[in-house]
Design brief:
The chain is of the alpha/beta class. It has four helices and ten strands. It is globular, with a radius of gyration of 17 Å. It binds zinc ion (ZN). Zinc ion binds next to loops. The site of zinc ion has 6 residues, from loops.
Length: 231
């Protein structure tokens, strides 16, 4: 899929949606995405251009149904059938209240206005920031964006081919223009998942850009925050 590098103006009704930049998705974590922590400097470079930053946090109960250990005889990365359809099984990750579920300590986005937790219902996984994996249980994010008149979403974070990708597709399904900043994401790439999500991006009208495309006058007084874990 072609990555656009044409200049793109950020406006005050845009939201930067930072998906799951948590310890368990970074090197050393329980479900580490290769180079996952490399998204952080890119996110820091573009964050000051946005008036509104929203974070998501994968937030599972200890024996969550998306964990392989909850399915006797199954192993991580195998598929199973849930009541809502096929589901990939994962190693235990982002368990509520554990260090793995915390934001990466280098992530300096205290200016974020919302932390949206997802995947907390024991029987349903949630890749998307908008809907859980049954495709009908809402997280409330669409209502939040509409009530705040945030009309376009830019997506960054982890993982490109799962939580970032499904969030972008759902944004389009709900009528929001959705732009994925490719170099501010890293992928798991399991069983062709990158090719699959990019085919769906094309069909849904999700734009893929490089961070060099983002232009707007950045207030030099707008500083990065402090590491989130020090709140
Ligand atoms: Zn998860």
């Amino acid at each position: 899929m072609r990555i656009a590098i044409n200049p793109l103006q950020i406006n005050p009704q845009d939201a930067l949606l930072v998906i799951d930049v948590q310890n368990d998705f970074c090197p050393g974590g329980a479900l580490a995405v290769a180079g996952g922590d490399e998204v952080i400097p890119v996110i820091h470079r573009i964050a000051p251009r946005f008036d509104h930053i929203l974070l998501t946090q994968d937030w599972h109960s200890p024996h969550h149904a998306s964990f392989a250990h909850a399915h006797p005889g199954k192993h991580p990365f195998e598929q199973t059938e849930m009541s809502y359809g096929p589901q990939t099984l994962w190693p235990d990750h982002c368990v509520q209240g554990t260090p793995g579920a915390e934001f990466h300590p280098a992530l300096r986005l205290t200016q974020a206005e919302l932390i949206l937790r997802k995947g907390f219902r024991p029987q349903i996984d949630s890749y998307s920031a908008f809907f859980e994996n049954d495709r009908t249980t809402s997280t409330g994010l669409a209502g939040y964006l509409r009530e705040r008149n945030l009309t376009r979403v830019f997506l960054v974070g982890l993982a490109y081919d799962y939580c970032v990708g499904y969030s972008a597709l759902d944004a389009r399904r709900l009528g929001f223009p959705a732009i994925v900043i490719r170099d501010a994401c890293r992928a798991i790439d399991l069983n062709g998942s990158v090719a699959s999500i990019e085919a769906q991006f094309v069909a849904a009208g999700v734009e893929l850009v490089d961070s060099v495309s983002l232009s707007s006058s950045v207030d030099p007084n707008r500083q990065l925050g402090v590491p989130l874990k020090h709140l």
